[in-house]
């Protein structure tokens, strides 16, 4: 009689999962669905919009670009890249790195709707690219000068697309939202879970 087969070590043969982002927000969001990346490989790419580029394709292009950079460094891994873009019509709002930019963004968003495009890209070791995009409509209340200045003073806007972080006090500005809240934070969890499962990543 043949000896009984030995159980394989859990996850011993699976490809590691690499997050192509240093964003702590994305790691926190992945943890919500029980995922901890095996490694972080931040992808430094030029995020400047191309001439005439609209918000939706801009987000998709950057997510894929970041994933490709990380895949070149870790060809053995499943790579997850993402990017979030705030758009007002055809206009791409910048990531605010100074108070003046954040103030301009908040002034533009005050009392109106805008769209948040959160794109993800997953590349497997065989080079296959999977992509997904969430599109969320957000409407801000009309902001007073005092509210804008108080938000600026708090510093949550720094480095954030559109000059705000919805997971912080700016959620109090959000009068209405249709779509993915996690996508606005920085990683749409429904789409992420679906693509990682399709790429063979074991999920809870």
From TrEMBL:
Its cofactor is a divalent metal cation. Pfam families: Maf. It comes from the Bacteria. SUPFAM superfamilies: ITPase-like (SSF52972). Its main location: cytoplasm. It catalyses: UTP + H2O = UMP + diphosphate + H(+); dTTP + H2O = dTMP + diphosphate + H(+). GO terms for molecular function: dTTP diphosphatase activity; UTP diphosphatase activity. The lineage of its organism: Bacteria, Pseudomonadati, Pseudomonadota, Alphaproteobacteria, Sphingomonadales. CDD domains: Maf. Nucleoside triphosphate pyrophosphatase that hydrolyzes dTTP and UTP. May have a dual role in cell division arrest and in preventing the incorporation of modified nucleotides into cellular nucleic acids. One of its GO terms (cellular component) is cytoplasm. The active site is at residue 83. This is dTTP/UTP pyrophosphatase. Its EC number is 3.6.1.9. InterPro entries: ITPase-like_fam (IPR029001), Maf-like (IPR003697).
């Amino acid at each position: 009689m043949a000896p009984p087969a030995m159980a394989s070590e859990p996850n011993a043969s699976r490809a590691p999962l690499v997050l192509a982002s240093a964003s702590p927000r994305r790691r926190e969001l992945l943890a919500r669905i029980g995922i901890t990346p095996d490694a972080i490989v931040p992808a430094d790419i030029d995020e400047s919009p191309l001439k005439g580029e609209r918000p939706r394709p801009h987000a998709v292009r950057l997510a894929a670009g970041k994933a490709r950079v990380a895949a070149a460094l870790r060809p053995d891994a499943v790579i997850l890249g993402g990017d979030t873009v705030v758009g007002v019509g055809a206009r791409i709002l910048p990531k605010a790195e100074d108070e003046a930019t954040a103030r301009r963004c908040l002034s533009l968003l005050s009392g109106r709707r805008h769209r948040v495009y959160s794109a993800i890209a997953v590349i497997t070791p065989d080079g296959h690219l999977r992509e997904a995009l969430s599109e969320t409509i957000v409407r801000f209340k009309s902001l007073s000068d005092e509210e804008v200045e108080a938000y600026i003073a708090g510093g949550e806007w720094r480095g954030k697309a559109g000059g705000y972080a919805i997971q912080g006090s700016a959620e109090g500005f959000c009068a209405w939202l249709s779509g993915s809240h996690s996508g606005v934070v920085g990683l749409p969890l429904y789409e992420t879970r679906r693509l990682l499962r399709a790429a063979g990543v074991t999920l809870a």
